[in-house]
Amino acid sequence: MKHFVLVAGCKLPPKQLPFRAYCENRVRQHVAANRAKEDLVFQILDVESGEVVVRTFTYPGGTRTESVAAVRSFERVTRAHYNGRLFGEGHPDVMSATDVYAAVRSIGIRAPGTLMELSFFSHGFAGGPVLVDSMDDGQLEERNAQGQLEAQPLGMRRDPEDKDPRPKDFHQANMGPEELAAFRAAYHPDGINWSWGCAFTPNANEILHHLEHHPDYRSSGLPDDKVLVFRTFTPSNLAHLNSFLPLSLPDHRKVEITFGELKRYIRNQILASYGHALAVASGRRTFGALVGTYAEPDHGPRPLMHVNHNFSRHFAFYRNYFSFTFDPERRWYGAYEPGFTQ
Predict the structure, then answer these.
(1) Which parts of the chain register pLDDT below 50?
(2) Cα separations (Å) of 144 from 68, 141, 151?
């Protein structure tokens, strides 16, 4: 029996996409492709409705049958949970990323080696899927010996008020060795992860654009020691560049930098991304939008999502300078490999 865990994030403005419908469409896609008539179990974790639904397909005598069961309900997410556009604090019964990980670990304990896919259908950014758009402020208010509230730094610990996935989720402060082993044990040898949302970091996109249109740039074969001079960076571009490199470039109006350093700027963002963290933690390939690109809905019947095709220069950069491959469904999601280091 093969298992699938499909997560539907909340419909958030400005693009209120039907993520639960995408999960259902993914179920239909896998069932239609199941020519071997293997038994399939789909867990759909719908964050907005608070529902966890299990759809099981079996084939007694070669005839497909389906059973549906709701195995647990969380608190439904409404506008009352938000302060403006940001998810508020004090909602412990709303579904969290930690509940998703628990579902995967349960498979690792009950039916190891059977998870074929963990998919997040949601908005997203390089730091991970956006399930409710909560915040990790890095601090936790705790009472001291005098009973006064004090802000304590969380370090690598998850913010208990945060619901969204984070790269640090797989750090031992949040997922101990036994839990991580159960998480990894869930996966089938051919199992994958998929984060269907965006990874659009505006500065990374703009810096790649400046690079790809530089007169000395080549889409392949440019040596790392090639010095490039840019006069098109914005102050924000320069600040972002400095934040991911041990540099202190002083003036955005003339940035002199080697191609190798620009590669390192992107590499450091890959290593800091949720796609990379999930690939390493699970030991399985993770398909997700590449840093500086965004996803959008398919058109036509039973839509899913794909990365905007206009990022073809970015795709070539990642393929030729970081050896990235792309998803087999030709949706232009990059394959984050567990062993990526370069």
Answers:
(1) none
(2) 48, 10, 10
**Which residues fall within 8 angstroms of residue 56, CB to CB, at 6 or more apart?**
39, 40, 41, 42, 66, 67, 68, 69
pLDDT of residue 15: 80
pTM of the model: 0.95
